[in-house]
Amino acid sequence: MTKKNLIVIGNGMVGHKFLECMIAKEATRDWNLITFCEEPRVAYDRVNLSGFFAGKTAGDLSLVEPGLYQTHNIQIHIGDKVDRIHRASKTVTSANGVTVSYDKIVLATGSYPFVPPIKGKDTAGTFVYRTIEDLEAMSAYAKGCQVGVVIGGGLLGLECANALKNMGLKTHVVEFAPRLMPVQVDDAGGEVLKQQIDNLGVSVLVSKSTTEIVNAEGKVHKMLFADGSELQTDMIVFSAGIRPRDELARECGLQVGERGGIVVNEVCQTSDPDILAIGECALYRDRIYGLVAPGYTMATVAADHLCLPYSNSFNGADMSTKLKLLGVDVASFGDAFGKTEGAKEIAIKDAVKGTYKKLVLNESGSLLLGGILIGDASAYGNLLQLVQNAIALPPHPEDLLMPPREGSSFSMGVESLPDTAQICSCNNVTKGQICSAIQENGLTDIGSVKKCTQAGTGCGGCVPLVTDLLKAELKKAGIEVKNDLCEHFAYSRQELYSLIRTHQIKTFDELLERHGKGRGCEICKPAVASILASAWNDYVLTPFHAGLQDTNDAFLANIQKDGTYSVIPRIPGGEITPDMLIIIGEVARDFGLYTKITGGQRIDLLGARVDQLPLIWHRLVEAGFESGHAYGKALRTVKSCVGSTWCRFGVQDSTALAIAIELRYRGLRAPHKLKSAVSGCTRECAEAQSKDFGIIATEKGWNLYVCGNGGMKPQHAQLIAEDLDQETLIRYIDRFLMFYIRTANRLERTATWLNKLEGGIEYLKQVIINDSLGICAELEAEMEYQVATYACEWKTTIADPEKLQRFNHFVNSDLPDPSLMRVEERGQTRPASEQERQLVQG
């Protein structure tokens, strides 16, 4: 029987997915599969395109296994696009002059970036963000630039902004709408998202209409806005949405939508039954689906239709999405805007922590309809399952956003989901399919599960749920669950710490060579840097360590929303002499810094330019101050009351102990920041029970509390030992801290760590007090090494002229950042708001 010709026009993510579906159905027995690929390379992962700037190559991003097309006799025309479809003769002609006859066509031409009709839009220095070639051109041009602007504040626009920021450019995002991500996020969420992104050093301008791009010597120079303001920039990237590529359909007479898009039915047929359309070029019920998951669903439906008998149909798609944009978690799912009649909303906004969580409930409050998560999207997977499976909510739906209340029996874990629950929407994979694959194929790692089921290979948003399922299945089977740090190390943080200690490994490169693979990433580099600091206490800006550090550690200061930094000298126990206070006041006055008392009994000097940091610290170190490590995952403060020295209720000298504690553990690097406090009596003025380790005086000595936490999910510290003398107290704290450093996960606070410990506080007592593991002598020795090798990082830095060279705003200029602008308020200066900037610039 003669095979029929099936031509797939477009080899992007959706076109390739269709070919994979046809291969899985063994359709090559009946069809000659022919595909035209306009780009110079086969399909690649456009969702994770920003990985290109993190070191991934085109090969790393490729979706096509080497030899896949050849093995299955798929003809591919790379670097050639179809120019015309001749429906009368049932042939297609390509740009390179290739003519092929067809029995069926699948149009997977995707979309193109929309460039607004702005005067000067074609000026040299303007780009779009769509292909690897676009990224290569941007990267090359950016080498001569200092400032970059992204026009468009949607999903792709914020991804693009991250790319510009990673290239070292001062980055701005210009959005026409009154908020970022207007399709996914409401006004309140948009406000929090804008604040978070501003805090990361990316300027966000909303409600801005660009009227002209002005050139100087033929290159981008500045942007003019409809409100009369302007913005100087060296390059511009358009990311203002997409438009369907439907030109082939228009030319051959297929039905298209009024605003574009190839009209399709529920089996993805166009107005010509022999031509199908899938992905972003297809219009179903007047809607273009601009995410990869609906495109994959269309690909599956089209493949089913061509391999009769078929059962699947396309009836629209869930547009829920979860992404990390510029390091900020953003998720939107279900009826996020509460359009359902009678819908009710529960919202929790924490402007300090930069989180916003909204749930949309039905009228009776019994079902979850949708929601928005900004800043913390860890609950996204479980919440989406509640929507998709119409699972009844607990009596207090707000519990879904808060720590579980006492006596609550409601479970939101993966084990409570039905087997029919869709875990991966990109590839339509259910819980039952994943569990069956794990059981039947003996899968033991997330990579194998992804390869076998395709779950998690699309946008990646479901990977946490898939991982939870894998762990649950392995636990049921009695198999040890792995907790690898990242793709470059097949070890958990705890195992890496042990390897570094045991083998005396002193650098990231040595660890990678002996126990890892690849070049490392933004997860493992800072994590290993922290472990190395915890183990060997080396100076973090030595050549071997400097490139591993996060932004704050790289400049030994906390970056602020306007790109300046804060300076926080250590004030042990909150005790400071008048002379030292005067020094701080003089420094703040001379450098024009905003001054504020912190919650940890220190003084925060805000608004320092990066080039000013060494000058400020030279003055402070000369006066006897040390780094307060407010920028590091390290001990921050040991808060205290005045204790028995002054207070009539105090029973012990809490201030003296707090100073001793802070000086002992200063600079100690840990999986996350550490806070402590010492109260001189049970009135607890220092709030010791909300700290990672807290101490409260008794008539007989000191009570030690551990693993407390403030913030979004407060947790009281738990009593681990009572009425201790000071020597025993210090010994127990030494053990506790080093055991936490040894065994906690990356970025895990002590409260979360304790909650995950099998046996909880009782187990911890056995380890710390009774030495049940026989490691307490080691823990004490490790802490003694930390104490003995402590050195102030800023004192070391200002003594080394070579290290001071990093403290410049620009790599090719000694000039300060010209974009900084301040206004006076309450006798001090603060960063100008966007509105204030516009008034000055206008």
Protein structure class: alpha/beta
Q: List how many beta strands DSSP finds.
A: 38
Radius of gyration over C-alpha positions, nearest whole angstrom: 30 Å
Spans where pLDDT lies below 50 across 5 or more residues: none
Overall shape: it is globular
Span between termini: 74 Å
**Strand ordering within the main sheet:** 3-2-1-7-19
Strand content: 15-25%
Largest sheet: 5 strands, parallel
Helix content: 25-40%
Count of discrete alpha- or pi-helical segments spanning 4 or more residues = 27
- Mean pLDDT, all residues: 89
Question: What can be said about this structure in brief?
Answer:
The chain is an alpha/beta fold and about 850 residues long. The protein contains 27 helices and 38 strands.
